[in-house]
Protein backbone atom coordinates (compact mmCIF):
# COMPACT_ATOMS: atom_id res chain seq x y z
CA UNK A 1 0.00 0.00 0.00
CA UNK A 2 2.69 2.41 0.98
CA UNK A 3 5.63 3.20 -1.27
CA UNK A 4 8.76 4.61 0.08
CA UNK A 5 8.78 7.66 -2.12
CA UNK A 6 5.15 8.43 -1.95
CA UNK A 7 4.37 10.97 0.78
CA UNK A 8 0.83 12.34 0.53
CA UNK A 9 1.10 15.48 -1.53
CA UNK A 10 -0.41 16.60 -4.84
CA UNK A 11 3.03 16.41 -6.47
CA UNK A 12 3.76 12.95 -5.01
CA UNK A 13 0.49 11.02 -5.00
CA UNK A 14 0.21 8.17 -2.48
CA UNK A 15 -0.16 4.58 -3.52
CA UNK A 16 -3.73 4.80 -2.18
CA UNK A 17 -4.43 7.54 -4.69
CA UNK A 18 -2.76 5.51 -7.37
CA UNK A 19 -4.86 2.48 -6.45
CA UNK A 20 -8.05 4.51 -6.64
CA UNK A 21 -7.31 5.40 -10.23
CA UNK A 22 -6.55 1.77 -11.25
CA UNK A 23 -8.90 -0.78 -12.78
CA UNK A 24 -10.18 -3.53 -10.37
CA UNK A 25 -7.83 -6.10 -11.99
CA UNK A 26 -4.83 -3.86 -11.62
CA UNK A 27 -5.96 -3.02 -8.15
CA UNK A 28 -6.12 -6.71 -7.19
CA UNK A 29 -2.56 -7.21 -8.42
CA UNK A 30 -1.28 -4.28 -6.49
CA UNK A 31 -3.20 -5.44 -3.38
CA UNK A 32 -1.71 -8.95 -3.37
CA UNK A 33 1.69 -7.52 -4.00
CA UNK A 34 1.15 -5.06 -1.19
CA UNK A 35 -0.03 -7.77 1.22
CA UNK A 36 3.11 -9.79 0.54
CA UNK A 37 5.26 -6.75 1.17
CA UNK A 38 3.11 -5.07 3.81
CA UNK A 39 5.44 -5.76 6.73
CA UNK A 40 8.39 -4.42 4.82
CA UNK A 41 6.31 -1.47 3.67
CA UNK A 42 5.32 -0.54 7.24
CA UNK A 43 8.96 -0.78 8.33
CA UNK A 44 9.96 1.42 5.43
CA UNK A 45 7.22 3.86 6.23
CA UNK A 46 8.34 4.13 9.85
CA UNK A 47 11.96 4.59 8.80
CA UNK A 48 10.88 7.02 6.15
CA UNK A 49 8.92 9.05 8.64
CA UNK A 50 11.75 9.04 11.12
CA UNK A 51 14.30 9.89 8.48
CA UNK A 52 12.30 12.64 6.94
CA UNK A 53 10.54 13.82 10.07
CA UNK A 54 7.13 13.29 8.47
CA UNK A 55 5.40 12.11 11.66
CA UNK A 56 2.04 13.35 10.50
CA UNK A 57 1.46 10.38 8.23
CA UNK A 58 2.30 7.89 10.90
CA UNK A 59 -0.08 9.63 13.27
CA UNK A 60 -2.78 9.68 10.64
CA UNK A 61 -2.22 6.01 9.92
CA UNK A 62 -2.35 4.97 13.56
CA UNK A 63 -5.48 7.13 14.12
CA UNK A 64 -7.15 5.35 11.23
CA UNK A 65 -6.17 1.96 12.64
CA UNK A 66 -7.49 2.95 16.04
CA UNK A 67 -10.81 4.04 14.51
CA UNK A 68 -11.14 0.72 12.71
CA UNK A 69 -10.28 -1.21 15.90
CA UNK A 70 -12.85 0.82 17.85
CA UNK A 71 -15.54 0.17 15.26
CA UNK A 72 -14.75 -3.55 15.29
CA UNK A 73 -14.92 -3.64 19.08
CA UNK A 74 -18.28 -1.86 19.06
CA UNK A 75 -19.67 -4.40 16.63
CA UNK A 76 -18.46 -7.31 18.79
CA UNK A 77 -19.83 -5.75 21.95
CA UNK A 78 -23.16 -4.99 20.31
CA UNK A 79 -23.37 -8.58 19.19
CA UNK A 80 -22.57 -9.86 22.69
CA UNK A 81 -25.23 -7.78 24.42
CA UNK A 82 -27.79 -8.62 21.72
CA UNK A 83 -27.01 -12.30 22.26
CA UNK A 84 -27.37 -11.94 26.02
CA UNK A 85 -30.70 -10.19 25.57
CA UNK A 86 -31.92 -12.81 23.10
CA UNK A 87 -30.97 -15.58 25.53
CA UNK A 88 -32.91 -13.80 28.28
CA UNK A 89 -36.01 -13.52 26.09
CA UNK A 90 -35.69 -17.18 25.19
CA UNK A 91 -35.58 -18.09 28.87
CA UNK A 92 -38.66 -15.97 29.58
CA UNK A 93 -40.46 -17.57 26.68
CA UNK A 94 -39.61 -21.07 27.94
CA UNK A 95 -40.74 -20.20 31.45
CA UNK A 96 -44.04 -18.91 30.12
CA UNK A 97 -44.48 -22.00 27.95
CA UNK A 98 -43.76 -24.33 30.88
CA UNK A 99 -46.28 -22.38 32.95
CA UNK A 100 -48.94 -22.68 30.27
CA UNK A 101 -48.28 -26.39 29.84
CA UNK A 102 -48.52 -26.93 33.57
CA UNK A 103 -51.74 -24.99 33.71
CA UNK A 104 -53.27 -26.94 30.82
CA UNK A 105 -52.31 -30.22 32.41
CA UNK A 106 -53.82 -29.14 35.69
CA UNK A 107 -57.08 -28.05 34.16
CA UNK A 108 -57.26 -31.36 32.26
CA UNK A 109 -56.40 -33.70 35.06
CA UNK A 110 -56.83 -31.89 38.40
CA UNK A 111 -55.31 -35.00 39.91
CA UNK A 112 -51.59 -34.50 39.38
CA UNK A 113 -48.86 -34.32 41.88
CA UNK A 114 -49.38 -30.74 42.93
CA UNK A 115 -53.09 -31.23 43.31
CA UNK A 116 -52.55 -32.79 46.72
CA UNK A 117 -52.05 -29.32 47.99
CA UNK A 118 -55.05 -28.09 46.05
CA UNK A 119 -57.25 -30.54 47.90
CA UNK A 120 -55.80 -29.61 51.22
CA UNK A 121 -56.56 -26.01 50.55
CA UNK A 122 -60.01 -26.56 49.20
CA UNK A 123 -61.50 -26.24 52.68
CA UNK A 124 -60.16 -22.72 52.99
CA UNK A 125 -61.41 -21.62 49.64
CA UNK A 126 -64.37 -19.53 50.69
CA UNK A 127 -62.35 -17.65 53.27
CA UNK A 128 -59.65 -17.09 50.70
CA UNK A 129 -62.05 -15.71 48.13
CA UNK A 130 -63.19 -13.19 50.71
CA UNK A 131 -59.55 -12.44 51.50
CA UNK A 132 -58.74 -12.10 47.87
CA UNK A 133 -61.48 -9.52 47.41
CA UNK A 134 -60.46 -7.71 50.54
CA UNK A 135 -56.87 -7.68 49.33
CA UNK A 136 -57.63 -6.34 45.91
CA UNK A 137 -59.52 -3.50 47.61
CA UNK A 138 -56.63 -3.03 49.95
CA UNK A 139 -54.20 -3.03 47.04
CA UNK A 140 -55.86 0.03 45.61
CA UNK A 141 -56.09 1.61 49.01
CA UNK A 142 -52.48 0.98 49.89
CA UNK A 143 -51.02 3.01 47.06
CA UNK A 144 -50.09 6.31 48.54
CA UNK A 145 -49.99 4.93 52.09
CA UNK A 146 -46.99 3.47 53.93
CA UNK A 147 -46.73 0.33 51.81
CA UNK A 148 -44.73 -0.15 48.67
CA UNK A 149 -47.49 -2.24 47.19
CA UNK A 150 -49.67 -5.19 48.05
CA UNK A 151 -49.65 -8.08 45.63
CA UNK A 152 -52.69 -9.98 44.48
CA UNK A 153 -53.63 -13.24 46.10
CA UNK A 154 -52.53 -15.73 43.48
CA UNK A 155 -54.43 -18.53 41.96
CA UNK A 156 -52.23 -21.38 40.98
CA UNK A 157 -51.11 -21.08 37.38
CA UNK A 158 -53.51 -18.22 36.78
CA UNK A 159 -53.04 -15.79 34.00
CA UNK A 160 -55.00 -12.56 34.08
CA UNK A 161 -56.79 -13.06 30.83
CA UNK A 162 -58.32 -16.44 31.54
CA UNK A 163 -58.98 -16.28 35.25
CA UNK A 164 -62.68 -16.85 34.76
CA UNK A 165 -61.97 -20.26 33.22
CA UNK A 166 -60.09 -21.49 36.28
CA UNK A 167 -61.87 -23.93 38.53
CA UNK A 168 -62.47 -22.66 42.05
CA UNK A 169 -60.31 -25.33 43.73
CA UNK A 170 -57.01 -23.66 42.97
CA UNK A 171 -54.16 -23.08 45.40
CA UNK A 172 -53.52 -19.54 46.53
CA UNK A 173 -50.30 -17.99 47.65
CA UNK A 174 -50.18 -15.96 50.85
CA UNK A 175 -50.44 -12.28 50.23
CA UNK A 176 -48.06 -9.80 51.80
CA UNK A 177 -47.07 -6.15 51.70
CA UNK A 178 -43.64 -4.60 51.74
CA UNK A 179 -42.91 -1.25 53.31
CA UNK A 180 -39.90 0.85 54.17
CA UNK A 181 -38.96 1.28 57.82
CA UNK A 182 -37.58 4.79 57.70
CA UNK A 183 -36.97 5.40 61.44
CA UNK A 184 -38.87 8.62 61.90
CA UNK A 185 -38.83 9.59 58.24
CA UNK A 186 -42.44 9.61 57.13
CA UNK A 187 -41.59 10.39 53.54
CA UNK A 188 -42.26 7.62 51.04
CA UNK A 189 -41.49 9.60 47.89
CA UNK A 190 -39.42 6.97 46.12
CA UNK A 191 -41.09 3.78 47.21
CA UNK A 192 -43.13 3.17 44.05
CA UNK A 193 -40.09 3.63 41.86
CA UNK A 194 -37.95 1.18 43.72
CA UNK A 195 -39.75 -2.11 44.27
CA UNK A 196 -42.49 -3.34 42.04
CA UNK A 197 -44.81 -6.20 42.69
CA UNK A 198 -46.42 -8.31 40.07
CA UNK A 199 -48.48 -11.37 40.89
CA UNK A 200 -46.83 -11.81 44.23
CA UNK A 201 -43.27 -11.85 42.91
CA UNK A 202 -40.69 -9.38 44.06
CA UNK A 203 -38.76 -7.60 41.38
CA UNK A 204 -36.65 -4.54 41.81
CA UNK A 205 -36.63 -1.79 39.24
CA UNK A 206 -33.99 0.08 41.18
CA UNK A 207 -32.28 -0.88 44.38
CA UNK A 208 -32.60 0.62 47.79
CA UNK A 209 -30.52 0.75 50.89
CA UNK A 210 -33.45 1.25 53.25
CA UNK A 211 -34.76 -1.35 55.64
CA UNK A 212 -37.71 -3.26 54.23
CA UNK A 213 -40.50 -4.77 56.27
CA UNK A 214 -42.74 -7.59 55.07
CA UNK A 215 -46.26 -7.84 56.47
CA UNK A 216 -48.50 -10.81 55.67
CA UNK A 217 -51.93 -9.91 54.38
CA UNK A 218 -53.09 -13.50 54.43
CA UNK A 219 -51.48 -16.25 56.47
CA UNK A 220 -48.64 -18.21 54.87
CA UNK A 221 -49.74 -21.75 54.14
CA UNK A 222 -46.89 -23.51 52.42
CA UNK A 223 -43.31 -23.85 53.59
CA UNK A 224 -40.37 -25.31 51.69
CA UNK A 225 -37.71 -26.79 53.98
CA UNK A 226 -34.21 -27.14 52.49
CA UNK A 227 -31.52 -28.99 54.42
CA UNK A 228 -27.77 -29.49 54.25
CA UNK A 229 -27.11 -33.14 53.29
CA UNK A 230 -25.26 -35.70 55.42
CA UNK A 231 -25.75 -33.98 58.75
CA UNK A 232 -27.32 -35.88 61.65
CA UNK A 233 -28.21 -32.75 63.61
CA UNK A 234 -29.92 -31.26 60.56
CA UNK A 235 -31.85 -34.47 59.91
CA UNK A 236 -33.10 -34.65 63.51
CA UNK A 237 -34.13 -31.00 63.50
CA UNK A 238 -35.88 -31.46 60.17
CA UNK A 239 -37.99 -34.37 61.48
CA UNK A 240 -39.02 -32.31 64.49
CA UNK A 241 -39.71 -29.12 62.56
CA UNK A 242 -41.82 -30.82 59.88
CA UNK A 243 -44.01 -32.45 62.54
CA UNK A 244 -44.39 -29.17 64.45
CA UNK A 245 -45.24 -27.12 61.35
CA UNK A 246 -47.83 -29.68 60.27
CA UNK A 247 -49.47 -30.34 63.64
CA UNK A 248 -49.23 -26.96 65.31
CA UNK A 249 -49.30 -24.61 62.33
CA UNK A 250 -51.35 -26.67 59.85
CA UNK A 251 -48.93 -25.82 57.05
CA UNK A 252 -48.28 -27.64 53.78
CA UNK A 253 -44.69 -28.77 53.55
CA UNK A 254 -42.44 -29.19 50.55
CA UNK A 255 -39.01 -30.81 50.73
CA UNK A 256 -36.46 -32.11 48.22
CA UNK A 257 -36.94 -35.71 46.97
CA UNK A 258 -33.86 -36.79 48.98
CA UNK A 259 -35.37 -35.42 52.20
CA UNK A 260 -38.77 -36.94 51.51
CA UNK A 261 -37.09 -40.34 51.18
CA UNK A 262 -35.22 -39.75 54.46
CA UNK A 263 -38.43 -38.75 56.24
CA UNK A 264 -40.34 -41.76 54.91
CA UNK A 265 -37.49 -44.08 55.93
CA UNK A 266 -37.94 -42.69 59.43
CA UNK A 267 -41.72 -43.18 59.50
CA UNK A 268 -44.70 -43.43 57.15
CA UNK A 269 -46.24 -40.65 59.26
CA UNK A 270 -44.41 -38.19 56.99
CA UNK A 271 -46.28 -39.21 53.86
CA UNK A 272 -47.99 -35.77 53.78
CA UNK A 273 -44.78 -34.00 52.74
CA UNK A 274 -44.72 -32.96 49.12
CA UNK A 275 -41.97 -32.61 46.56
CA UNK A 276 -41.57 -31.84 42.88
CA UNK A 277 -40.94 -34.33 40.11
CA UNK A 278 -38.84 -32.50 37.57
CA UNK A 279 -37.35 -29.18 36.49
CA UNK A 280 -40.64 -28.01 35.02
CA UNK A 281 -42.37 -28.34 38.39
CA UNK A 282 -39.36 -26.75 40.06
CA UNK A 283 -39.69 -23.75 37.75
CA UNK A 284 -43.18 -23.17 39.15
CA UNK A 285 -42.35 -23.79 42.78
CA UNK A 286 -42.20 -20.09 43.63
CA UNK A 287 -45.91 -19.84 42.84
CA UNK A 288 -46.74 -22.46 45.52
CA UNK A 289 -44.34 -21.61 48.32
CA UNK A 290 -44.88 -18.76 50.78
CA UNK A 291 -41.73 -19.22 52.81
CA UNK A 292 -38.44 -21.13 52.60
CA UNK A 293 -36.69 -22.43 55.70
CA UNK A 294 -33.03 -23.44 55.35
CA UNK A 295 -31.27 -25.69 57.85
CA UNK A 296 -27.49 -25.52 57.30
CA UNK A 297 -24.84 -22.91 56.70
CA UNK A 298 -24.32 -20.22 54.06
CA UNK A 299 -23.95 -22.95 51.43
CA UNK A 300 -27.55 -24.02 52.06
CA UNK A 301 -28.78 -20.45 51.55
CA UNK A 302 -26.81 -20.36 48.27
CA UNK A 303 -28.35 -23.70 47.33
CA UNK A 304 -31.86 -22.40 48.08
CA UNK A 305 -31.28 -19.29 45.96
CA UNK A 306 -29.86 -21.37 43.09
CA UNK A 307 -33.08 -23.41 42.90
CA UNK A 308 -35.06 -20.32 41.90
CA UNK A 309 -34.17 -18.96 38.47
CA UNK A 310 -36.79 -16.22 38.81
CA UNK A 311 -38.57 -14.74 41.83
CA UNK A 312 -37.61 -16.16 45.24
CA UNK A 313 -39.99 -16.47 48.22
CA UNK A 314 -38.67 -15.06 51.54
CA UNK A 315 -35.99 -17.28 53.14
CA UNK A 316 -35.66 -17.91 56.88
CA UNK A 317 -32.10 -19.22 57.34
CA UNK A 318 -31.38 -21.27 60.49
CA UNK A 319 -27.76 -21.62 61.44
CA UNK A 320 -26.43 -25.18 61.48
CA UNK A 321 -23.07 -24.53 59.90
CA UNK A 322 -19.75 -23.23 61.17
CA UNK A 323 -19.67 -19.61 59.94
CA UNK A 324 -23.27 -18.70 59.18
CA UNK A 325 -22.81 -15.25 57.71
CA UNK A 326 -26.23 -15.24 56.11
CA UNK A 327 -27.95 -17.47 58.70
CA UNK A 328 -29.01 -15.28 61.63
CA UNK A 329 -31.56 -17.62 63.27
CA UNK A 330 -30.66 -20.03 66.07
CA UNK A 331 -32.07 -23.50 65.53
CA UNK A 332 -32.60 -24.07 69.28
CA UNK A 333 -35.27 -21.37 69.22
CA UNK A 334 -36.94 -22.39 66.00
CA UNK A 335 -40.49 -22.44 67.44
CA UNK A 336 -40.33 -18.85 68.73
CA UNK A 337 -38.62 -17.68 65.54
CA UNK A 338 -41.12 -19.32 63.21
CA UNK A 339 -44.08 -18.16 65.33
CA UNK A 340 -42.86 -14.62 64.98
CA UNK A 341 -42.09 -14.97 61.24
CA UNK A 342 -45.49 -16.51 60.49
CA UNK A 343 -47.17 -13.69 62.42
CA UNK A 344 -45.05 -10.98 60.80
CA UNK A 345 -44.06 -8.29 60.14
CA UNK A 346 -40.53 -9.38 59.21
CA UNK A 347 -37.50 -7.20 58.51
CA UNK A 348 -35.93 -8.49 55.35
CA UNK A 349 -32.68 -8.00 53.46
CA UNK A 350 -33.16 -7.93 49.71
CA UNK A 351 -29.97 -9.62 48.53
CA UNK A 352 -29.24 -8.80 44.92
CA UNK A 353 -28.12 -11.45 42.48
CA UNK A 354 -26.05 -11.35 39.32
CA UNK A 355 -27.25 -12.96 36.12
CA UNK A 356 -24.55 -14.37 33.87
CA UNK A 357 -24.47 -15.56 30.28
CA UNK A 358 -21.66 -17.34 28.51
CA UNK A 359 -21.27 -16.18 24.92
CA UNK A 360 -19.40 -18.84 22.98
CA UNK A 361 -17.24 -17.72 20.10
CA UNK A 362 -18.13 -20.91 18.26
CA UNK A 363 -21.90 -20.51 18.74
CA UNK A 364 -23.64 -20.30 15.41
CA UNK A 365 -26.66 -18.57 16.83
CA UNK A 366 -27.56 -16.84 20.08
CA UNK A 367 -29.61 -19.92 21.08
CA UNK A 368 -26.40 -21.91 21.51
CA UNK A 369 -25.17 -19.58 24.21
CA UNK A 370 -25.56 -20.51 27.86
CA UNK A 371 -27.49 -18.79 30.61
CA UNK A 372 -28.69 -17.13 32.54
CA UNK A 373 -26.91 -18.48 35.60
CA UNK A 374 -27.89 -16.58 38.75
CA UNK A 375 -25.49 -16.08 41.62
CA UNK A 376 -26.05 -14.76 45.11
CA UNK A 377 -22.35 -14.49 46.05
CA UNK A 378 -20.19 -14.23 42.95
CA UNK A 379 -19.12 -15.46 39.56
CA UNK A 380 -15.41 -16.32 39.37
CA UNK A 381 -13.27 -16.56 36.27
CA UNK A 382 -9.96 -18.21 37.05
CA UNK A 383 -7.10 -20.21 35.60
CA UNK A 384 -8.44 -23.55 36.88
CA UNK A 385 -5.73 -26.19 36.59
CA UNK A 386 -3.69 -24.19 34.08
CA UNK A 387 -0.32 -22.99 35.30
CA UNK A 388 -0.39 -19.93 33.00
CA UNK A 389 -1.56 -16.48 33.98
CA UNK A 390 -5.16 -15.80 33.03
CA UNK A 391 -5.50 -13.04 30.52
CA UNK A 392 -8.98 -11.51 30.72
CA UNK A 393 -10.16 -8.46 28.81
CA UNK A 394 -12.85 -6.64 30.78
CA UNK A 395 -15.44 -4.19 29.49
CA UNK A 396 -18.03 -2.23 31.43
CA UNK A 397 -21.00 -1.09 29.31
CA UNK A 398 -18.75 -1.38 26.26
CA UNK A 399 -15.96 0.74 27.76
CA UNK A 400 -12.66 -1.05 28.15
CA UNK A 401 -11.89 -1.46 31.87
CA UNK A 402 -8.64 -3.39 32.02
CA UNK A 403 -6.88 -6.60 31.19
CA UNK A 404 -6.60 -8.90 34.20
CA UNK A 405 -3.34 -10.83 34.28
CA UNK A 406 -3.17 -13.01 37.34
CA UNK A 407 -5.06 -15.95 38.82
CA UNK A 408 -8.46 -14.60 37.86
CA UNK A 409 -11.29 -12.22 38.57
CA UNK A 410 -14.29 -12.21 40.92
CA UNK A 411 -17.49 -10.37 40.04
CA UNK A 412 -19.34 -10.30 43.32
CA UNK A 413 -22.60 -9.06 44.75
CA UNK A 414 -22.45 -7.07 47.94
CA UNK A 415 -23.77 -10.15 49.81
CA UNK A 416 -20.79 -12.04 48.40
CA UNK A 417 -18.39 -9.29 49.48
CA UNK A 418 -17.69 -11.17 52.71
CA UNK A 419 -17.00 -14.46 50.90
CA UNK A 420 -14.37 -15.15 48.19
CA UNK A 421 -14.03 -11.47 47.26
CA UNK A 422 -13.01 -10.68 50.84
CA UNK A 423 -10.33 -13.37 50.72
CA UNK A 424 -8.98 -11.78 47.51
CA UNK A 425 -8.69 -8.34 49.13
CA UNK A 426 -12.07 -6.85 48.21
CA UNK A 427 -13.95 -4.51 50.53
CA UNK A 428 -16.75 -5.70 52.80
CA UNK A 429 -19.97 -4.04 51.68
CA UNK A 430 -23.37 -3.91 53.40
CA UNK A 431 -25.68 -6.27 51.47
CA UNK A 432 -28.26 -3.55 50.79
CA UNK A 433 -25.72 -1.38 48.98
CA UNK A 434 -26.43 -1.71 45.27
CA UNK A 435 -23.24 -2.50 43.40
CA UNK A 436 -21.02 -5.06 41.71
CA UNK A 437 -17.57 -5.78 43.13
CA UNK A 438 -14.74 -6.20 40.63
CA UNK A 439 -12.01 -8.01 42.55
CA UNK A 440 -8.89 -9.49 40.94
CA UNK A 441 -7.39 -12.74 42.26
CA UNK A 442 -3.62 -12.42 42.74
CA UNK A 443 -3.10 -9.86 39.95
CA UNK A 444 0.49 -9.72 38.74
CA UNK A 445 0.63 -5.97 39.01
CA UNK A 446 1.52 -3.49 41.72
CA UNK A 447 -1.32 -1.14 40.94
CA UNK A 448 -4.45 -3.26 40.58
CA UNK A 449 -6.95 -2.26 43.27
CA UNK A 450 -10.43 -3.79 43.55
CA UNK A 451 -13.34 -1.70 42.21
CA UNK A 452 -17.00 -1.36 43.15
CA UNK A 453 -19.18 -0.57 40.14
CA UNK A 454 -22.78 0.66 40.10
CA UNK A 455 -25.54 -1.90 39.90
CA UNK A 456 -26.87 -0.87 36.48
CA UNK A 457 -23.76 -1.74 34.45
CA UNK A 458 -23.21 -4.77 32.22
CA UNK A 459 -19.81 -6.34 32.53
CA UNK A 460 -18.16 -8.45 29.86
CA UNK A 461 -15.10 -10.55 30.43
CA UNK A 462 -13.48 -11.95 27.30
CA UNK A 463 -10.73 -14.54 26.94
CA UNK A 464 -8.72 -12.97 24.11
CA UNK A 465 -7.63 -15.03 21.13
CA UNK A 466 -3.98 -14.53 22.04
CA UNK A 467 -4.50 -15.99 25.52
CA UNK A 468 -2.03 -18.77 26.39
CA UNK A 469 -4.68 -20.84 28.11
CA UNK A 470 -8.38 -21.39 28.63
CA UNK A 471 -10.17 -19.89 31.62
CA UNK A 472 -12.75 -21.41 33.95
CA UNK A 473 -15.89 -19.86 35.27
CA UNK A 474 -17.81 -20.93 38.39
CA UNK A 475 -21.05 -19.74 39.94
CA UNK A 476 -21.20 -19.42 43.74
CA UNK A 477 -18.32 -21.88 43.77
CA UNK A 478 -20.22 -24.44 41.68
CA UNK A 479 -20.97 -25.51 38.09
CA UNK A 480 -17.50 -24.97 36.59
CA UNK A 481 -17.43 -24.28 32.85
CA UNK A 482 -14.53 -23.79 30.50
CA UNK A 483 -14.04 -20.55 28.55
CA UNK A 484 -12.04 -20.97 25.36
CA UNK A 485 -10.22 -18.07 23.67
CA UNK A 486 -12.89 -15.88 22.06
CA UNK A 487 -15.57 -16.84 24.63
CA UNK A 488 -17.04 -14.19 26.90
CA UNK A 489 -18.95 -13.97 30.15
CA UNK A 490 -21.60 -11.25 30.28
CA UNK A 491 -22.85 -10.30 33.72
CA UNK A 492 -25.39 -7.81 35.05
CA UNK A 493 -27.67 -7.38 38.05
CA UNK A 494 -30.65 -9.77 38.03
CA UNK A 495 -34.14 -8.42 38.58
CA UNK A 496 -34.89 -11.15 41.15
CA UNK A 497 -33.33 -10.52 44.54
CA UNK A 498 -33.23 -13.07 47.33
CA UNK A 499 -35.26 -11.82 50.31
CA UNK A 500 -33.79 -13.18 53.55
CA UNK A 501 -35.45 -12.65 56.93
CA UNK A 502 -33.45 -10.67 59.47
CA UNK A 503 -33.06 -11.52 63.11
CA UNK A 504 -33.15 -7.77 63.96
CA UNK A 505 -32.63 -5.67 60.85
CA UNK A 506 -30.27 -5.66 57.87
CA UNK A 507 -27.60 -3.48 59.42
CA UNK A 508 -27.57 -5.06 62.90
CA UNK A 509 -27.41 -8.54 61.36
CA UNK A 510 -24.56 -7.52 59.00
CA UNK A 511 -22.54 -5.97 61.82
CA UNK A 512 -23.16 -8.95 64.08
CA UNK A 513 -21.96 -11.28 61.31
CA UNK A 514 -18.70 -9.45 60.71
CA UNK A 515 -18.03 -9.27 64.46
CA UNK A 516 -19.04 -12.82 65.41
CA UNK A 517 -18.21 -14.59 62.15
CA UNK A 518 -15.01 -12.85 61.10
CA UNK A 519 -13.86 -11.23 64.37
CA UNK A 520 -13.57 -7.99 62.44
CA UNK A 521 -11.21 -5.44 63.99
CA UNK A 522 -10.78 -7.45 67.16
CA UNK A 523 -8.03 -5.84 69.19
CA UNK A 524 -7.25 -5.54 72.85
CA UNK A 525 -8.31 -2.12 74.11
CA UNK A 526 -5.34 0.14 74.91
CA UNK A 527 -4.97 0.65 78.63
CA UNK A 528 -5.75 4.01 80.21
CA UNK A 529 -2.58 3.68 82.20
CA UNK A 530 0.05 5.59 80.17
CA UNK A 531 1.03 8.87 78.49
CA UNK A 532 -1.78 11.13 77.21
CA UNK A 533 -2.37 14.65 75.83
CA UNK A 534 -2.01 17.18 78.58
N1 LIG B 1 -10.68 -18.38 49.24
C1 LIG B 1 -11.93 -18.31 49.61
O1 LIG B 1 -12.30 -17.63 50.56
C2 LIG B 1 -12.96 -19.06 48.84
C3 LIG B 1 -12.58 -19.97 47.86
C4 LIG B 1 -13.61 -20.62 47.16
C5 LIG B 1 -14.95 -20.36 47.46
N2 LIG B 1 -15.26 -19.49 48.43
C6 LIG B 1 -16.63 -19.14 48.73
O2 LIG B 1 -17.43 -20.24 49.01
C7 LIG B 1 -18.71 -19.97 48.50
C8 LIG B 1 -19.49 -21.25 48.38
O3 LIG B 1 -19.87 -21.58 49.69
P1 LIG B 1 -20.21 -23.07 50.09
O4 LIG B 1 -20.72 -23.07 51.49
O5 LIG B 1 -21.03 -23.68 49.02
O6 LIG B 1 -18.78 -23.72 50.02
P2 LIG B 1 -17.85 -24.20 51.23
O7 LIG B 1 -18.55 -25.28 51.98
O8 LIG B 1 -16.51 -24.44 50.64
O9 LIG B 1 -17.81 -22.92 52.19
C9 LIG B 1 -17.14 -21.73 51.91
C10 LIG B 1 -17.11 -20.81 53.13
O10 LIG B 1 -17.52 -19.52 52.70
C11 LIG B 1 -18.51 -19.04 53.61
N3 LIG B 1 -19.43 -18.15 52.90
C12 LIG B 1 -20.25 -18.45 51.86
N4 LIG B 1 -20.95 -17.37 51.50
C13 LIG B 1 -20.56 -16.37 52.33
C14 LIG B 1 -20.92 -15.00 52.45
N5 LIG B 1 -21.78 -14.44 51.62
N6 LIG B 1 -20.32 -14.25 53.40
C15 LIG B 1 -19.41 -14.80 54.24
N7 LIG B 1 -19.03 -16.07 54.17
C16 LIG B 1 -19.59 -16.86 53.22
C17 LIG B 1 -19.20 -20.26 54.14
O11 LIG B 1 -19.82 -20.00 55.39
C18 LIG B 1 -18.06 -21.23 54.26
O12 LIG B 1 -17.42 -21.11 55.49
C19 LIG B 1 -18.43 -19.31 47.18
O13 LIG B 1 -19.52 -18.55 46.74
C20 LIG B 1 -17.23 -18.47 47.52
O14 LIG B 1 -17.59 -17.17 47.90
C21 LIG B 1 -14.29 -18.83 49.12
N1 LIG C 1 -30.06 -29.09 49.90
C1 LIG C 1 -28.83 -29.27 49.44
N2 LIG C 1 -28.57 -30.15 48.45
C2 LIG C 1 -27.31 -30.34 47.97
N3 LIG C 1 -26.24 -29.69 48.45
C3 LIG C 1 -26.43 -28.81 49.44
C4 LIG C 1 -27.74 -28.54 49.97
N4 LIG C 1 -27.62 -27.62 50.96
C5 LIG C 1 -26.31 -27.31 51.01
N5 LIG C 1 -25.61 -28.01 50.11
C6 LIG C 1 -24.15 -27.96 49.88
O1 LIG C 1 -23.52 -28.50 51.03
C7 LIG C 1 -22.32 -27.80 51.30
C8 LIG C 1 -22.23 -27.42 52.75
O2 LIG C 1 -23.35 -26.65 53.11
P1 LIG C 1 -23.29 -25.48 54.15
O3 LIG C 1 -22.33 -24.43 53.72
O4 LIG C 1 -24.68 -25.03 54.38
O5 LIG C 1 -22.78 -26.19 55.46
P2 LIG C 1 -21.43 -25.98 56.24
O6 LIG C 1 -20.29 -26.13 55.30
O7 LIG C 1 -21.49 -26.91 57.40
O8 LIG C 1 -21.60 -24.53 56.78
P3 LIG C 1 -20.54 -23.36 56.76
O9 LIG C 1 -20.45 -22.99 55.31
O10 LIG C 1 -21.14 -22.30 57.61
O11 LIG C 1 -19.28 -23.92 57.30
C9 LIG C 1 -22.31 -26.59 50.36
O12 LIG C 1 -21.40 -26.82 49.33
C10 LIG C 1 -23.70 -26.54 49.79
O13 LIG C 1 -23.73 -26.12 48.43
TrEMBL record:
Residues 1-23 are annotated as: Disordered. It comes from the Eukaryota. Residues 72-99 form a coiled coil. The keyword NAD applies. Its EC number is 2.7.1.23. GO terms for molecular function: ATP binding; NAD+ kinase activity. Residues 8-23 have a biased composition (Polar residues). One of its GO terms (biological process) is NAD+ metabolic process. Keywords: ATP-binding, Coiled coil, Kinase, NAD, NADP, Nucleotide-binding, Transferase. It catalyses: NAD(+) + ATP = ADP + NADP(+) + H(+). InterPro entries: ATP-NAD_kinase_N (IPR017438), ATP-NAD_kinase_PpnK-typ_C (IPR017437), NAD/diacylglycerol_kinase_sf (IPR016064), NADK (IPR002504). It holds the Pfam family NAD_kinase. Belongs to the NAD kinase family. This is NAD(+) kinase. It comes from Sesamum indicum. The lineage of its organism: Eukaryota, Viridiplantae, Streptophyta, Embryophyta, Tracheophyta.
Amino acid sequence: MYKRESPMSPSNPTSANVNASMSPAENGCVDSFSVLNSEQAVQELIQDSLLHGIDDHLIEFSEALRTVAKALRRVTEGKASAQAEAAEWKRKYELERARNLQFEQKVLSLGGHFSEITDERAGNLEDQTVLSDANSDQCELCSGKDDICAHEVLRDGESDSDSSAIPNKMMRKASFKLSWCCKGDKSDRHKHDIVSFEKGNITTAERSSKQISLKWESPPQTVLILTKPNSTSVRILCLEMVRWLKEQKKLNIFVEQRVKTELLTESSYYSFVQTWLDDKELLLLHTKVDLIVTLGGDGTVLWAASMFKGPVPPIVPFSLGSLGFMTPFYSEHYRECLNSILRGPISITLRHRLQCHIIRDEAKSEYENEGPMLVLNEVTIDRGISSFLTNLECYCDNSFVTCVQGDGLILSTTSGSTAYSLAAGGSMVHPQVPGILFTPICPHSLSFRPLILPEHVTLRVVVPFNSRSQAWVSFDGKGRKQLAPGDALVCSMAPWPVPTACQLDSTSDFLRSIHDGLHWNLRKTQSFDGPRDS
